[in-house]
Each structure stands twice: as structure tokens, then as C-alpha cells.
Design goal:
Layout (H helix, E strand, L loop, with lengths): L1 E2 H29 L4 H18 L5 H15 L4 H16 L4 E2 L1 H19 L9 H9 L5 H13 L24 H20 L3
Antiparallel strand pairs: 1-2
């Protein structure tokens, strides 16, 4: 069972990866977006770390609800609402249980991804974060590491895609040939989850 400590570690690990990759995320976003994806997420996950340090969220669901609310209030552009929705809907799906199984987390994440799709009106193939999240969450039934690997492959697969949603869609065919920054950061989120699970499970 995964408890609140596990989820706190996940959010912390995600922040570490975002900090490490912030310049790359911004570079990707400079090609097809507003050149602020890295800095926005860095600010958001720094705020999440501070919020979790100040709030005694004691269940997995409460940790993700707090993280989601914080991202919505601190991250500009579309990223805040999208990531906030992902984490809040996942947290809501986990309920008030003190511990959740891997299968329960997978189902809750699946609901979270569905909420993101509904909010953004996007689907896989539109060159968005869903191109990493959908295959990543689907692979959770195999393992956390498989989920991270599938998400990373999904992010790389956005390079030849034509953007149909988001800021990049305004560029039309000029969006082709660039990796989507949202899919890239979504892959980082699942990579952080896999890293924490590997550590906890002694891999």
C-alpha cells in the first residue's frame, strides 16, 4: 500500500526533475509556445513543496488535492489548470484512505487523465501532454517503470505531429518537427513516480 509519505516523495521528486529540466522545457516551449513552460512549472512545484511542508496532509488523496490546488494558483497559462486538474481528480479518486494500492492509483490516474482530456478538449495525437499521459498510465498495469518509459516514448513521438490544440496549434505546420513541452513535462511526472516506487520497493 502507498501512504501519504509516498505521495509527498512523488511530488518532491517531480519538483527535482522539473528543476533539472526547466531550461530544456523552456527551450522546447520557445519553439512552439510562449517560452515559459519550464519557469512556470519550476515556480509551481516550488510552491507545492512549500505547501506540503506547511500542511499536514495525511492521506494520499489529500496530498494530491493540495498539490493540484497549489499548481492551479501558481502556474500561469494552461499548464496550471491542466496539471492541477490531473492531480486534483486523481486525489479525489483516491478518497480519504490512509493507504492505496497500485491498482487504485492507476484507476485514479486514469480518471485524472480523462479530466485533463475533457478540460483541454484534446485527444492523443493532438500533440499535447496527453500523448505522454495516456500511454504512460496505460502501462501502469505492467509497472511504474514501464509507465515512465511509455510516457517518454509518447513525448518523443510528438516530434512529427501537427499540433491541433494549445498554443502550438496556432503555428500550423510549423509545429511539426518539435517535441511538445507539455508531453515532455508529463513524462517527467511519471518518471518521478517510477523513481520513488523503485526506491520504496528496493529496486
Amino acid at each position: 500500500m502507498r501512504d501519504a509519505v509516498f505521495f509527498r516523495r512523488w511530488m518532491t521528486a517531480a519538483g527535482v526533475l522539473v528543476e533539472r529540466e526547466a531550461d530544456r522545457l523552456t527551450e522546447l516551449d520557445s519553439a512552439i509556445g510562449d517560452a515559459d513552460h519550464g519557469s512556470n512549472l519550476l515556480r509551481g512545484f516550488s510552491a507545492v513543496r512549500e505547501a506540503l511542508a506547511a500542511d499536514p496532509a495525511t492521506t494520499p488523496g489529500a496530498v494530491l488535492l493540495l498539490a493540484g490546488r497549489t499548481l492551479i494558483s501558481t502556474v500561469g497559462g494552461a499548464s496550471g489548470p491542466l496539471y492541477g486538474t490531473l492531480l486534483r481528480r486523481t486525489g479525489k479518486g483516491l478518497g480519504e484512505a490512509a493507504g492505496v494500492s497500485d491498482d487504485e492509483l492507476r484507476k485514479a490516474l486514469y480518471a485524472g487523465v480523462g479530466a485533463v482530456a475533457q478540460l483541454g478538449g484534446a485527444a492523443p495525437g493532438d500533440k499535447t501532454m496527453l500523448d505522454a499521459l495516456v500511454p504512460g498510465v496505460a502501462a501502469l498495469s505492467t509497472s511504474y517503470r514501464a509507465a515512465a518509459d511509455s510516457a517518454e516514448k509518447g513525448a518523443r513521438a510528438t516530434v512529427p505531429m501537427l499540433a491541433r490544440k494549445g498554443r502550438a496549434s496556432y503555428l500550423g505546420e510549423r509545429s511539426i518537427g518539435h517535441q511538445d513541452p507539455g508531453a515532455t513535462s508529463a513524462a517527467l511526472l511519471l518518471a518521478a513516480l517510477a523513481d520513488v516506487a523503485d526506491t520504496e520497493d528496493g529496486r
